[in-house]
Amino acid sequence: MLRDPIAVIFPIHGTMLRFFNMYVYYKRDAGRYFSKEEFLNYVEKKTIRTIQKYDMLRYDDTIAVAVSGGKDSVSLLYVLDKIEKKFPTELVIVHVDEGISGYSELSYPIVARHAKKLGYRLYHTSFKDLFGFTIDDVAKYYFEQKVDLEPCSFCGEWRRWALNKLALEAGATVLVTAHTLDDFAQTIMMNILRNALSRLSRLVLSREKTIEGFVPRVHPFVELYEKETALYAHLLELEHNDAPCPYAELSMRWDLRLFLYQQEEKHPGTLYNILRFHQSLLRELPQQKITLKRCQLCGYPTTTDICRAHYLERILRSLKLVSRF
Ligand code: SF4
Fold first, then answer.
1. Around Cβ 109, how many Cβ atoms within 10 Å?
2. What is the pTM of this model?
3. What was the pLDDT predicted at 18?
4. Where are the domains of the chain?
């Protein structure tokens, strides 16, 4: 894409140009303005390049797309729908209900409408059905100070497990999630702050090798900012759940998110730099040999006797038992 000569000569802010209906986006880290058509094209091309760069998808995959109903995942669904039409791949949608009042119940109908519109099979389940608890239950225990892990810790772990289960049921060969550059930068920083080097070293972008019981996961939006995937949904007027999760602000991720936005605003390219730093670090780190076992309760690949999802479930079950006495 050519750089706009007006933008080069006059460094006018993107919102002003938007006023004249010429541009919809100014990409600060690249110093470029985009019209609507250019921007949609940019997101789709960037996704294709990311898929190729990290060898994420194969020509005959059955792709399970994790669609929460939020703007990022709905955008991913439509980008992949456009891209994958050119290949003999099959797309299916997987969706998990977290059980968060005022938030989760809005998502499923939206996801179901997109599945129907695009003609994809939809597989869905809920934390309540799988683990016997909702995230609202977890939050209640958290506010009563009966558990010290915030709701996001349960939600993230259970979602990973549930999406894998649904992908297996759908016969998927790969699971695709809408994690963006913002999400990855936050995850990298969280692992640094928690001194979790082994977790950091397992955070790979290229397609993981297939392990029995575990569907490889890839993230084609990893080089796109969250504001870009949001704008994609907005420009195409894609229906999505805009309600904020009431528990998001309790997490470390939330604080890092705000901090990193400030840094990105002051120093455009910060998020990319974190991602690049992590890539360099992975090249320097010696390869770790991990021996995987099977969870004694569900058979999920794990390094411990019981997978983390069921370990967390057990904590809640023991609390429930204690509260009966
Ligand atoms: Fe779950 Fe936390 Fe996301 Fe809410 S913000 S949906 S609790 S991971």
1. 12
2. 0.90
3. 55
4. 53-286
